[in-house]
Amino acid sequence: MKVAYIILAHNYPEQLLRLVDQLNTDKTSFFIHIDKSSDRKIFKQISAELMDFPNVFFLKRYNSKWGSFGIVKATLKVINSIVETGICFDYIILLSGQDYLIKSNTYIKMFLQENQGKEFIEYFSLPDKRWGEHGGLKRIDSWHFSWRNKYFDIPEKQKFQSYIASLLYSLVILLLPKKRKLIEGYAIYGGSQFWCLTGECIKWINIFVQQNPKFVKRFHYTFCPDEIFFQTIILNSHFKDKVVNNNLKYIDWGNVNSCHPMILDKNDVEKIRQSEKLFARKFDPTKDSDILDMIDQMILSE
């Protein structure tokens, strides 16, 4: 059972190194993308620590700001790199640098063997009320972009301190269509960014995006396209009957209206232990430095 882990990270190098160390076996490979906007010292530290690992590959760095198409772009570039290795991976698993395993490598291998051929990705048809008033469609039928760390949603009016900026924005609203057309011929799906897909599915995605550049381009200026792009591709493909609606990740959305999950801490250990998921997120060593030690001792050592 050969497994490739895609890890998208932007901070906390020690946490990333720990994740790789725990997941590392003779049958695993790691394809790591460090956000281009991250401090270069982080990239140097991680690459220096892992330079002697023959199964660790670092990818060209792209700006992958939260909510932007850059996350999809970086993920697609990693997928292409995995395919180009020529290695026949049974599964490719997408993680972030703030994830951690909550089952042993032996258990993960056994789980994947027992479910071989299934595609694991969370999905729901859009519109869906859990994504707000417009059911998530506003993410794709409006124009979304960022400038100087501020997000803009066209055609919504924005407040500017500068008269010139306000005038320019008003002109942009007039020039752009009021609504972007949905993707013709595709049912739209949303869900979690993270997934566990077969090598066969990953190869098909790589071919699909190369043959359908207009489809990919349509997700530019989309808000959080990483939570729509892969669901829409897979659920409109011949893989749809193999999909299990599960991202295999324990996540606490304690605040249902938040854009980000709760930070897990030592008080969550028992819930994590009882979970049937393989991984968990989100961990932050600046908020709780003991939780990962507790997982190692109380869960992974069992």
Total helical elements: 11
What's the shape? Answer: globular
CATH architecture of the largest domain: Alpha-Beta Complex
Strand order in space, largest sheet: 3-2-1-4-11-6-12
Order of helices and strands: EHEHEHEEHEEHEEHEEHHHEEHEH
Oligomer designation: single chain
Number of strands: 14
CATH overall fold name of the largest domain: Spore Coat Polysaccharide Biosynthesis Protein SpsA, Chain A
CATH class of the largest domain: Alpha Beta
Q: Quote the beta fraction.
A: 15-25%
| Total domains | 2
Instruction: State the separation between the terminal residues, measured CA to CA.
Output: 22 Å
Radius of gyration: 20 Å
Q: Major β-sheet, in short?
A: 7 strands, mixed
The share of residues in helices is 25-40%
Q: Note poorly predicted spans.
A: none
* Overall average residue pLDDT: 89
Structural class: alpha/beta
